[in-house]
Amino acid sequence: MTVKIGLLGLGTVGTGVYKLITSRGGHIKESTGVYPEIKKILVKNLNKPRKVKVEGLLTQNAEEILKDKEIKIVIEAIGGIYPAYEYVKEALFSGKHVITANKELIAQYGEELNEIAEKNRVFLKCEASVGGAIPILHQIDRLKITDEIDFVGGIVNGTTNYILTKMTTEGRSYEEALKEAQQLGYAEANPDYDVKGFDALYKLVILMRKVFNINVPINSIPRKGIDEITTQDLNYSNKWGYKIKLFSWCKKVKDGIFAGVEPVLVEENNILSRVNDVNNAIILRGDSFGEYVFVGKGAGELPTGDAVVADLIDILLNYDIKDNLRINLLPIRQGSFTDTFYIRLKLYKEDILGLKKVLKFLKEQRVSIVESSSENGTFAAIVKTKKNVEELIEKLEEITEIKAFFKVLQENIIEELKLSEFEDFVEVI
Q1: 138 or 245: which carries more pLDDT confidence?
Q2: Catalytic residue selected from 40, 103, 125, 203
Q3: For the packed helices 136-146 and 198-212, what is the interaxial angle rounded to 10 degrees?
Q4: Range list of β-strands (E), 77-223
């Protein structure tokens, strides 16, 4: 049996998909009983030089794929919202299975597209939209059968991870590391999509939908990028045994969801601190299995193409089974996955007087200091608090200027300082 496939786009992802399907078609048939054949490929420019031999397959007319009754599966590798949204919707309405690597499309329109797929009894698969070569969505499906997952998080943007790796390991400035990422093709000329956290946010929404069967408004999730991280912050974190990573996370609580995309300090003994360059890592936590960490290439032609082909194999193995799930709406609430934080403050007035005022405030709020440094009108510290961190920050801003505030992901629990030790520290200062 042969299944005809239409491929929308022949850029980086599309080329990887084409290479894998054409080179592994025989192996796929051995595993599934079905031979996948790419019948048509949609491109913008018919005359553009290609890395693969595609004679007779190219078209500039999407309808040659979407209206072709022989084509049963459409793979969308265009990216962006338009025209990808219209193409995917038409394919689903036409009774074609769809596979996409488009995280922005799925994050913004995944609920609608899933409903269309369900009504037309076809699959909508999006493994490649999160984590590159990491088969995380398939793993979540399997783990959810035997356990209750209550936390998902990780490093899901290879561009920002590459930039932070260069800043940390080679002492590059943010501007230098970004320029190198652009030269290597990891970052666009306008890098905001990555460095301001939008890409990571879209992927988080997809993970939340898969893990918790929920849908949330994208703009309700707090988002920070890496463009405000300074050399000072990197130096302090390195000094105290931490690395800074752009972390996407979601924690299910009794009456809602805590979630965010933000820079986070990670202890050096945590595996995430050693996930460098364009690699991704995703954490799942559950009642029975404890914690799993999945690590793999987060970007690139073949890693992403591999995730698309994994979805294709899934469709071929379950050709007559339709599993698009309905999802619920839960609110995003203010909250945190940790009680440990990094702060960097600009002290008012003279250094000593300003520092004493800050330390007195922290003592009154029963905040423990894990690490600290004070120099040249700057106070930086790792602190622990059991209080509401938003209220703490609001009060702290009344007496000083907060220049940086990041959460800290810890693997080992650090014992709180005794109050007497804290008082001694204040007196010494």
Answers
A1: 245
A2: 203
A3: 30
A4: 97-100, 124-125, 149-155, 214-215
**pLDDT tens figures, 95-104:** 999 999 898 9
Please report the pLDDT score of residue 11 as a whole number. 86
Work out the angle at residue 286's Cα, subtended by the Cα atoms of residues 115 and 283, and round it to the nearest 5 degrees: 80
- Report the chain's C-alpha Rg in angstroms: 24
Give the Cα separation of 139 and 136 in Å (integer). 5
Q: Would you state the pLDDT for residue 413?
A: 33
Residue 203 a catalytic site member: yes
Measure the CA–CA gap between 293 and 154, rounded to whole angstroms: 9
Decide if 280 contacts 291 (C-beta within 8 A).
Answer: no
- Strands in 298-352 per DSSP E: 328-329, 340-346
What are the residues whose beta carbons fall under 8 Å from the beta carbon of 298, sequence distance 6 or more?
Answer: 131, 132, 133, 134, 155, 156, 157, 158, 161, 278, 279, 280
User: For residue 297, what pLDDT is reported?
Assistant: 75
Strand-pairing partners, residue 256, are 253
CB distance 98 to 89 below 8 Å: no
With tokens 């040659």, the residue in question is 64
Structure tokens at 418: 């005794």
pLDDT tens-digit readout, 11-43:
888 898 999 999 989 998 888 888 999 999 999
